[in-house]
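Need a sequence for this fold. Nothing fancy.
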């Protein structure tokens, strides 16, 4: 089944609204669950992907950048980007006000001068409220699986990316090893949903997670979609036996 047809709750309703509902539901438990279900590895995955993306930016050592973080959630990637590029202007967008509320609370903990460089707002990834060629770097972590129309979302990000700009996608993927594949299947389809139900109280959200991962285009299939959407120089790299893959495209 196509990932666009995998819905969090109901089969006969539009996906985007359900994704918003789901993330509003799990927002209070989101950061804890990220750490618990990845055993803290999500930080290492994030850091490796972002450093690769930044290294791909022309003149990153001397220039300041306008950065967009799509599906920013609670702002994890946006805040890390700020630590790596402290002069950059960073905008984080998401469709879930519940997630954005947490990101904004985190923002208030930063010094005033830092707060001026970051902003969080609600926006739809399929219709970005930004000018063409506005951003030098666009990031999206664990979000493209949730796009109701993946090709359209990729094309929108390309539209607002400046010439020579970089897109960095971080996404969960399915390990392919003889031993790791069955172990991952057991962990993702049984253990994660069980823990998710206990912690978040949402009986469906963490069952949707492995279903959407399995149905999502991965590795060369995702790279082909990126090229079809107009990107070039597409590269990808597996991390932790293929449990996550990041993509760098210009």
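Here you go.
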């Amino acid at each position: 089944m196509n990932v666009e047809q995998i819905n969090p709750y109901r089969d006969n309703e539009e996906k985007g609204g359900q994704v918003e509902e789901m993330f509003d539901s799990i927002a209070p438990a989101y950061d804890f669950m990220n750490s618990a279900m990845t055993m803290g590895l999500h930080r290492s995955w994030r850091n490796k992907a972002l450093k690769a993306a930044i290294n791909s930016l022309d003149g990153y050592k001397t220039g300041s950048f306008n950065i967009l973080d799509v599906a920013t959630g609670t702002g994890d990637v946006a805040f890390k980007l700020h630590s790596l590029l402290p002069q950059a202007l960073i905008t984080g967008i998401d469709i879930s006000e519940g997630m954005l509320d947490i990101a904004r609370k985190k923002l208030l903990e930063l010094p005033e001068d830092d707060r001026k460089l970051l902003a969080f707002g609600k926006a739809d990834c399929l219709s970005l409220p930004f000018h063409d060629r506005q951003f030098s770097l666009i990031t999206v972590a664990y979000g493209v699986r949730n796009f109701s129309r993946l090709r359209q979302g990729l094309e929108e990000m390309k539209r607002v990316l400046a010439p020579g700009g970089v897109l960095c996608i971080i996404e969960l993927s399915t390990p392919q090893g003889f031993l790791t594949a069955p172990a991952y299947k057991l962990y993702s389809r049984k253990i994660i949903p069980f823990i998710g139900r206990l912690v978040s109280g949402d009986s469906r959200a963490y069952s949707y997670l492995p279903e959407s991962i399995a149905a999502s285009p991965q590795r060369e299939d995702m790279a082909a979609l990126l090229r079809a959407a107009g990107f070039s120089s597409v590269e990808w790299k597996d991390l932790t036996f293929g449990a996550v893959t990041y993509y760098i495209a210009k």
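For context: The mean pLDDT is 91.
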